[in-house]
Amino acid sequence: MTLNQLLDEGTERLSKAGVEEAALDARYLLLEAFHTDLTHFLIERNRELKAESQESVREFYRMLELRSARIPLQQITGSREFMGLNFFVNEHVLIPRQDTETLAEQVLMDYKGKYPRVLDLCTGSGCIAISLAKLGGFRSVVASDISAEALKVAQHNGEAILGKDKITFLLSDLFNAFRTDERFDVIVSNPPYIPTEVIRKLQPEVRDHEPMLALDGKEDGLYFYRRLAEESSKYLNPGGTVYFEIGYDQKEAVSKLLAEAGFTKIRSWCDAAWFDRVVSGVYEK
Question: What is the pLDDT of residue 51?
């Protein structure tokens, strides 16, 4: 058997299981199982596999079985790239999306050469907080989440990418665990924002295998934005700014919530697909 034949077999199995990008996922799993890259695969793909490759073959079949069960590719490989950095992920955290890079990129642009005190709420894997600390050189970053298991993942990523004790991690339901005198210059959040009823219609990879805690925005998807709009101003320095990731159809609703809570200079940005993805506001009082 050759690598090419293995890849064809894997693609067929994933396709029958209903995996949308069967060929691409099969290739990722093959490269992972054989600890190789695309260049070496292209060179070796038509050569007969050696006996010592059998362990890698078994690993490939094991991962195919998991992917056929619609377990997300990133949970199988245990990694996801975000902002050019490699993050460990598992079933306890939302898999970082490219859409979320829109938020991180805008904060980095707005605070280039500055050193704000940053708070990342609903941090999950820590991808936003860690990217800001690493790429922006922000020296004071706090990351919190309501999930203790998610915080373990975020702390692991923080130590792997930044080193130990570079970010403060805090178990908290939004602001509940914070002192009343704590203040930040920037508050960022990618909160749960999918309406409960919509979740059951999502792909099995998301609906069945990503944490409901990170997806469910309650009845209308705006539950956490209401809380964030109402509570964020108490923890901002004068002129502080909030940046929230939003669903593609939530710009007007979230902007209104911020305006009603006293925020001004409300702005929004689209992601690479031109969907509304980030809303920000400044609290000047």
Answer: 84
